[in-house]
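Batch 3, record 17
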Amino acid sequence: MDSCIVGQFQRLANISDKEISLLRTLEENAESYQPDVIIQHEDQPSKHFYTIRKGWAYSSRILADGDRQILDIFLPGHIMGLREIGFNKSTYRFVTLTQAEICPFPKARLTEIFNESPRLTDLFFLVIAREQSILAERIINLGRRSAAQKLAHFVIETKVRLGNTIDEFDLMLSQELLGDTLGLSSVHISRTFKFLRDRGLIERDGNRVKIVDLEALMEFADFNPCYLEQDVQWARQG
Amino acid sequence: MDSCIVGQFQRLANISDKEISLLRTLEENAESYQPDVIIQHEDQPSKHFYTIRKGWAYSSRILADGDRQILDIFLPGHIMGLREIGFNKSTYRFVTLTQAEICPFPKARLTEIFNESPRLTDLFFLVIAREQSILAERIINLGRRSAAQKLAHFVIETKVRLGNTIDEFDLMLSQELLGDTLGLSSVHISRTFKFLRDRGLIERDGNRVKIVDLEALMEFADFNPCYLEQDVQWARQG
DNA sequence: CGTGGGGTTGATTCTTATCAATTCGGGTGG
DNA sequence: CCACCCGAATTGATAAGAATCAACCCCACG
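Prediction for the assembled complex:
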């Protein structure tokens, strides 16, 4: 249960049994998906959020010239689509990366939760703020770092988001998807992995990524984990 | 009063007198700043948000190698720092671009507002979601568009955020700051303005920017205003 | 009058994209 | 069990886009 939505919230703060069962209602309607399946098309009415209980997924935008930019990488316990709360039409596409269990729930359900639990209201605010911080760091990544730093930074971020306990994990994105996340071509992702391997920072075999020298890698990527570590003092008590 | 924080919220939805006066409490402690003044340093304890009542400001991160990335452009009526609600230390620097009136208020004040007004709670959620959408569009901009498209897109976005009524306005960023916003060098911003001028899309004189052919510019930049136009159906009624 | 900061322009270099060919590995069908 | 096939990854050659460096202009301001 550590990776479901309850786990995500418990990682932020202590929550009561009542709040736990409220959160569980968001995961009632699980649906199973194969990899590379579109969960929600862009330009479709979007009346739901989606909790991801198992597997990986991403959101992307396809541009007029056919280019693609990936916006979010969703991991278990995360909520897909929060940023579109005020829009009737989605402008992003949600796609699975692996086999996944996805639980849609109506947007209005969120307001109900706000009504029922001030504590969860605060925590949802914290969640959306954290998402924003991740986007802000990606802007820094895209705007002002080299290809190798971008990739290194992204790998470390993913490691931390996965729980930070392991220095080896499966990165479920092809090099083309990595490129579309980091604003690079797939060819250059390949070269960049080679660059990082040659410097003894990262080993890689298929999806498997092993961080060889975490300290050097963080230094190289200018990675500061602050933006993923929130404190919850400010919130109301449960 | 249209450009203060009350105006921002009224643009989203109808709010009651009680809510208006709640919002006004956020603007009680106005402070005047000259241009290019640091309002909040990075790595300092951050216990406040800031409402901007007059003028322009931005947030930025300085990287290890001295490079800078600008994350937000704050316009009157916006709230600075929302994304850092869960952090005790700021990792961004807030700086004025023009003479400005800035109103700090303690973070805890937000929780109080959540307590007092469910309606405003929803709207604050909408505000932070909208900010997130702006960041997401900048990611697309940085990741997958040419320099000229980036600049064009940013100019249109700013026009819309300023109220969208005028095709001519003062863009209060030097070319160096524009570069640090869009991940380009200041020299290249200069060339890119020339490029857009040569194509009859934008005229410019000092800070003054005139959009000559909005339709062509939007087409060129692949600009879709959806992400700035929210709908508030989902929220609780005031 | 200087002086200094921002903007422009040209020449050159560097990073990354693009295009093309080749390899690798996993899955399929005979 | 093997031959084949396909998609992804790798590698090399070349091109494009933007950075960098340097010179110069413009002008606001003391």
